[in-house]
Amino acid sequence: MCLCLLLYSCISEFTAKEIEEISDILVVEGIITNNETTIILNRSVNLNDTLDKPRYVRNAEVYVEREDGMLFGKEPSTSGHSDGRYVIKTGTLDINYRYRLRIKIEEHEYLSDYSYPLQTPEIDEIFWIKERQGAPVIIYVSTSDPDILYYRWSYQEVWEVFSDWIADSVPGSSSIMPPVASTGTYPYRCWSSSRSSGIIIGSAVRTGSERFAYPLTEILATDKKLVELYQITVTQNAISKRAYDYFENIQKNASLPGNIFAPIPSELRGNIICITDPRRPVIGYIVASSTTKKHFFIWRSDDVYEEVIPQKCDTFESVDLEEMHGPNWKQLVPDRYVQLTRSSYYTYRQCADCTFRGAATAQMPEGWPNP
User: Fold this and answer.
1) How far apart are alpha carbons 351 and 333 in whole angstroms?
2) Is residue 253 pLDDT above 90, yes or no?
3) Alpha helices in 213-257 (DSSP H)
4) Could you give the angle at the alpha carbon of 186 between the alpha carbons of 183 and 188, nearest 5°?
5) What is the rounded CA–CA span in Å between residue 170 and residue 178?
6) Which element (helix H / strand E) includes 104?
7) pLDDT at residue 55 tops 70
8) Which residue in 37, 141, 154, 288 could disulfide with 88, CB within 3.0 to 4.6 Å?
9) Tens digits of residue pLDDT in 315-356
10) CA distances from 321 to 165, 232, 312, 353, 356 (A)
11) How far apart are CA 353 and CA 357, in angstroms?
12) How many percent of the chain have pLDDT more than 70?
């Protein structure tokens, strides 16, 4: 998950110098946690930049530092990935020591405040609610610990996808058969995945109950994520009140218009400073917290998916395609049409190849419960 500051305004005019002052601010995202700590680094952008392409920082040295001088982050895995992620093997956090983040980028060095690791309670339950036909499916997470009042969550989704083509639509066929081309077999069963984005925080202060439930995400009932089998893996972290207030301010400022090139408010500066140049602003708040996780599935048998008008997947013989496209119709294979296995029939590529629609893989996830 990546925290990017995008500030908007269309009210006043500003000079190029003022534009430069608000851009290129280091944005630090992550939580120091047990086993592996993932830190994401990017740069803030202004309206002159391409907003749909985050400016990830890939040339940093990132360490987790314990107050007794122990450094974590010398393994090769600390090198930056293409999405600005730095993975640091931290092992089990010792509750008797405080931890902080140390970042080196060229001639500048950054430090977060020290913090003792908070002990995160287990996730009690993940459940969904769909109030009526046509309503979205809302997924909730619940936990209970009277000593922990502030939480942050993230999640990863994986769902099973089938191609739209069904083999029994082919004359004489009675079973599902994958289409083939000269390069091999096209998959008809795939899996897609996505990560949560933005900030998901919750407070149990006003609940008046030990059990605290929070809505994580909602899925349209017509979303094909819900057709076959959907999995969500929820990550939960306890955070401090100061961290909660900070992230809440980030949410508010991200949703308010105006002051695109105004100075960064002090409440957005977080607990990270540039020790080589204290005037350089940094956005981010780093805490230490153990992590708890839980998996949850929504099955086809839960009957939450509502089908829209299905895509029509016709089949064609070679004479049909020649009539439609002329004698050079084979040039459209396999980009537009694919031939079906053990058949003289063809169908549209998007109907037969489940990887055609985007970031899907034909590799079954490890431990997938629907073999």
Assistant:
1) 14
2) no
3) 241-255
4) 175
5) 12
6) strand 99-105
7) yes
8) 37
9) 889 999 999 999 999 999 888 888 877 678 888 888 888 887
10) 18, 43, 17, 19, 21
11) 8
12) 76
